[in-house]
Structure formats: C-alpha cells, structure tokens
Amino acid sequence: MGELKIGIMGAMSEEIEGILELIDSVEEIKIGNRIYFEGKINEIKVVLVFSRWGKVAASSTVSALIHHFGVNQILFTGVAGAIMNDLEIGDIIIGKRYIQHDLDARPLMKQFEIPLLGKTFIEADQQLLQTIEKAVCNFSIHLKNKQVISDDILSKFNIESPRILIGDIASGDQFFSSIEQKNQLSSLLPTILCVEMEGAAVAQVCFENGIPFCIIRTISDTADHDAHIDFPKFLKEVSGKFSSGIIKEYFKLIGK
Ligand code: SAH
To answer: What per-residue confidence (pLDDT) applies to 180?
Structure first.
C-alpha cells in the first residue's frame, strides 16, 4: 500500500461538521450530489463526506471515495438504534461484523446471504478495529472528565457513563421504530447489537475492493416507539461531538 489516505464518512450533515474543523487546507469537490472535503488531519491525507442515509447512498459514496479519490482506508461514524436490550443512549458500538438484514434472495440462497459472495457477514479489519478501540477508550476518558459535553446536555439525554461494545451490526433500508421490528430482528439474528442504514453496504463495497474499514456508531435511540428523541439536538450536541472526538483521538494515535 502506498501513502495512507483515509476516507471518512458520516450519515448526518451535523456529524461531519465537527470533523471538518479538524481538517487542514480543505478543498471542496462536488460529485454526484455530494461534497467531498479533501485535506489533511495531523499530516495524514483525508477525504470527508456526508453520505446521506441508506445503503444506496452509502455504497455510491464509498465507491467514489475508493475509485475517484483513491482512499485506502475507510472510517464511518454515525448513530444507530439499539437492538440489544440493555444498551443505552450514548453507548458506543464498534462494528466487528456487518449483515444486511433486508437482503433475502430465498429460495436461491439462504436469507441474508450476499449474492455471489457466498457470505452473510462481512468483518471489519482486525488491526484497524484495535486502533479504533484505543481511540474510543481515550475519547471516553475525556468524556468522563467532562471535557467534551456539558452535564446539562448529558443529563438531557440521560447519558451517565457510556459503554463501549464491539460486536455485530445490522443495516438495511428501514428506520426501526417499533418493538415488533426490533423483536423480529433479534429473533432471526440474536447477536446483533444495533441497527442502522449504511454500515453493511459500506462493508460490502470495502470488502470487494480490499479496503480496510471500521464503523463506529453512537446509540441515538432504542429503535422502538421511543425512537423519536430530539434528533437534531442529539446529533449536534452529542453524537457529532462523539464522532469528531473519536476521529481526533484516532489521528493522535496514527499521526505523524
Ligand atoms: N429522523 C431523524 C434522523 C433519521 S435517523 C431526524 O429527524 O433527523 C436515520 C439515520 O440514523 C440513518 O443514517 C441510520 O443509519 C441511523 N439510525 C439511527 N437510529 C436508527 C434506527 N432506529 N433504525 C435505523 N437507522 C437508524
């Protein structure tokens, strides 16, 4: 691999704003309804983009990052709905394996299998995952020391001491907002921690192009009838700060 060039994706515009502030000498490039911000963080080349929501949006964006911008590593930060029962708003999930919960080509192949790949789960890069885990732990120390978010905001969203978990994430083109949806997913796929709308698509494109990737999600809602928290405020005041804080710690670890 040549010089490291990292693609950073976020599914929410509010979330990439904080990351944009970390980038030096930013250049804006418009392609296919997206703005790609190219520059450097700690002397490492990066391209940041707001992918928009859903698998198609995420796949086309990550393809442009790989084929147009030549990135050789992908990070994705965003929010997700909790599937595992005792997860709480503000918990951080680092994805180890990804599955498309809405992919179903039965009877041609088994449920969730990706056509022609013969796989249902795609794994994040092990080494990258370990470094991201360190970055998230470093970030959570700053969070505990109240250096990131005020007590007022944390208590507004009932965030006490967010946990960090590594595990399985399911993605699909559906926003989960009922207990029935949630129960159905966990009965079919009992290891799933959280649900979102982009990760497994990014994972598949990265896998097929041999690009190491890692996806980090902050739990924003419980994926049931309570899934309507004050989203704009949560994105700006909480998950946006989580995303930029974690990215900052990651570049401290790998920076020149
Ligand atoms: N409706 C909200 C935002 C939508 S959330 C608003 O008012 O702005 C959709 C995004 O968050 C997607 O990018 C998805 O990946 C993630 N997400 C968060 N909670 C989710 C859930 N319960 N189900 C599916 N995706 C979720």
So the answer is: 96
pTM above 0.90, yes or no: yes
Whether the CB-CB separation of 57 and 47 falls below 8 Å is answered with no
Asked if residue 26 belongs to a domain, the reply is no
Pocket test for ligand 1, best of 197, 215, 216, 238 (most atoms within 8 A of CB): 197
Backbone dihedral angles phi then psi of residue 10, each to the nearest 5 degrees: -140, 145
Residue in 14, 15, 196, 237 annotated catalytic: 15
Would you say 191 and 167 are in contact if contact means Cβ atoms under 8 Å apart?
yes
Q: Which residues contact 152 (CB under 8 A, 6 or more apart)?
A: none
If phi > 0 it is left, if psi is from -120 to 50 it is alpha, else beta; for residue 52 that is left
Asked if the structure places residue 14 within a domain, the reply is: no
Give 1-59 pLDDT, tens digit per residue: 689 999 999 988 888 999 999 999 999 999 999 999 999 999 999 999 999 999 999 99
Burial 125-141 (b: 16+ CB within 10 A, else e): beebbeebbebbebbbe
In whole angstroms, what is the distance from residue 251 CA to residue 135 CA? Answer: 8
Looking up residue 228, the CATH number of its domain turns out to be 3.40.50.1580
Which of helix, strand or coil describes residue 199? helix
